[in-house]
Structure formats: structure tokens, C-alpha cells
């Protein structure tokens, strides 16, 4: 696993086709913009809860993975 520290407005390039932009950091939330070919599946995966007394409560409050993930609009020339 590679761990990268970055700031708002900075991007991470993965290979030639995938670019991840850190759009906004606010409180405990990070908004990312991901630009990738349509054939690469992208979905949010919940991280396992941290060990400790709050672990049970955190797991109980976790919603459905990917429920707030919007579909990337098609670029001109992309097929259906």
C-alpha cells in the first residue's frame, strides 16, 4: 500500500489513464474527483472500523457503500 499526503487542488496520477484530484478537505471529509476510462470500475469501499471502544458504534452507523457516489458523465465519443 502506498500512502500519499496531498493538499486541496493537488492530483495523483495512476498510470496513463487514471487521475485523482483532491477537490476539497473539510473537517473529516475529503472530496475527490476521479478521471478514468469508463471500463475501469470505480466504487467506494468502507474502511474497517478502528479498534477501540468506538468501533462497534462506527460499524452500526455505516451506510450502504457507494450510496452517495454519482456516475461519471460520458465524454464526447464514448459509447453506451
Commentary on this structure:
- With about 80 residues, the protein is mainly β.
- The chain has a domain at about 10-35.
- Helices cover about 10% and strands about 25% of the residues.
- It is built from one helix and three strands.
- The protein has one helix spanning about 55-60, and strands at about 10-15, 20-25, 30-35.
- Strands 1-2-3 form a three-stranded antiparallel sheet, with no helix packed on it.
- A hairpin with a 2-residue loop joins strand 2 and strand 3 (about 30-35).
- The relative contact order is 0.14.
Largest sheet: 3 strands, antiparallel
Number of helices: 1
Q: How big a fraction of the residues is strand? A: 25-35%
Overall spatial form: globular
Instruction: Tell me how many strands there are.
Output: 3
What share of residues is helical?
Answer: under 10%
Cα Rg: 16 Å
Distance between the first and last residues' Cα:
34 Å
The strands making up the biggest β-sheet line up spatially as: 1-2-3
Give the helices and strands as they follow along the chain: EEEH
The poorly predicted ranges are 62-68
Amino acid at each position: 500500500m502506498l500512502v500519499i499526503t496531498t493538499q486541496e487542488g493537488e492530483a495523483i496520477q495512476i498510470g496513463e489513464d487514471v487521475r485523482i484530484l483532491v477537490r476539497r478537505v473539510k473537517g473529516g471529509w475529503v472530496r475527490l474527483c476521479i478521471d478514468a476510462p469508463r471500463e475501469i470500475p470505480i466504487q467506494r469501499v468502507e474502511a474497517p472500523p478502528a479498534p477501540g471502544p468506538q468501533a462497534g458504534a462506527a460499524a452500526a452507523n455505516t451506510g450502504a457503500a457507494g450510496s452517495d457516489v454519482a456516475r461519471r458523465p460520458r465524454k464526447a465519443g464514448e459509447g453506451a
